[in-house]
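Limitations

Structures in this collection are predictions, not experimental determinations, and the ligand pose is part of the prediction. Treat each record accordingly. The example that follows, with 2'-deoxycytidine-5'-monophosphate as the small molecule, is included so readers can see exactly what is and is not provided: the inputs are given verbatim, and the output is the predicted complex.
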Amino acid sequence: MAKRIAIAIDGPAGAGKSTMAKWLAERLGYVYVDTGAMYRAVTLYMLEKGVSPAAEAAVCAALPAIRLDLTHTPQGDRIVVNGTDVTAAIRTPEVSAAVSQVSSYACVRALLVERQREWGAAGGIVMDGRDIGTVVLPEAELKIFLTASVRVRALRRLAQWQQEYPDRPQELAAVEEGIRARDRADSERKISPLRQAEDAVLVNTDELTPEETLARLLTLAKKVTTC
Ligand code: DC
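Predicted complex:
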């Protein structure tokens, strides 16, 4: 029987990590953990409680009151904070604009990384984020660094947004600028910055359809699980 391994997928915002990680997990019969959704959920909680994302001490003080659950349902994966399903609410531009700052704090990372490591230890998991291959699961048997140009990522984000929120139009230039700002913040932060692990396989999806990307990832996973 094939080994049930841990697969780490890292990369910048909008590279297609979540879709790929979800599909890969489905095809392999693995659990999928979207770590970005965890940072977003913490950020949403702060915004809703009126805690400024810029106030590190206040963010850290508010953390113990958060109970975060990821559930796998037939309708898809849900993220729940203190009993409220926030799966849709964590995708707004307000949360996207504040999440890099909240996720740069050591107290936030320590809390979430501990949870992620517990889940990762059992294997049979695909986890996506920014620091999975470098910090959360450095022993992962397969590490993928998924990337694409800023323009391609912005176009994909915009298409996804327009489908979900047709009554809230956004400009491409604004989406591009948001992605650039988040790339900068995620790559330049002191703790666990976004970077490719030395043993990660680089996959650029500019010229690939989602199906072609999935096929490439499945080939990589098969190589590892059958050897
Ligand atoms: O993947 P995403 O765009 O939903 O992630 C939201 C933010 O969370 C991203 O800007 C950086 C942060 N993040 C992180 O710092 N570490 C992770 N493992 C995942 C996300």
